[in-house]
Specification:
The chain has 167 residues and is of the alpha+beta class. Helix content is 37%, strand content 31%. It has one domain (5-159). The strands form two sheets. It has a four-stranded antiparallel sheet with strand order 4-5-1-8, sandwiched between helices. Strands 3-2-7-6 form a four-stranded antiparallel sheet, covered by helices on one side. The protein is globular and about 50 Å long. The termini are far apart.
Amino acid sequence: MARTYLEKFYFPLHATFIEGNLYGRELTDEEIIDRLPYIQNQIDTIQQTGKPQKEMAEQLNRVIGIKKLISATWGVTHRYGVPYGIVRVRCAEPVDAFERNEIRLIIGFINEDGFWSEFKNKNFEYGDKIYEVRMFDDEDGDYYVHTQSLMYIKWKRKKNTKKWRDK
């Protein structure tokens, strides 16, 4: 079996309760983390019925102009009590800094477009509540897509302060 390389990219994850036709309050980090397994199941369903991981990698390869990407898988995770969206990109060859930055930018554009437009403005039922999950929220101008190494630096810097959110 040929060796592959894994690149991980992280971004903020937000969710809002929907009450009738009105947006309710923003979910706390703890509430989002409690729902992560359910959110991941919904993302997996979208990926299985929508654009498969291979097709997503082909789209990224075409836009960036390289042929190294094998698959791109969206998901959710948390670290130090803060929920994040994550994209795991499997590559046939190592990517350089320029290619990594291009992948990062394209992931941001895909998230802004609503994760293949199937995740944008999609409401999910969880128990007796309905909520909307957003992988792109730039209301405060603090949206980012970071590489794994940059997130490790960010987490290490904040570990002593216990201030995990940038706000």
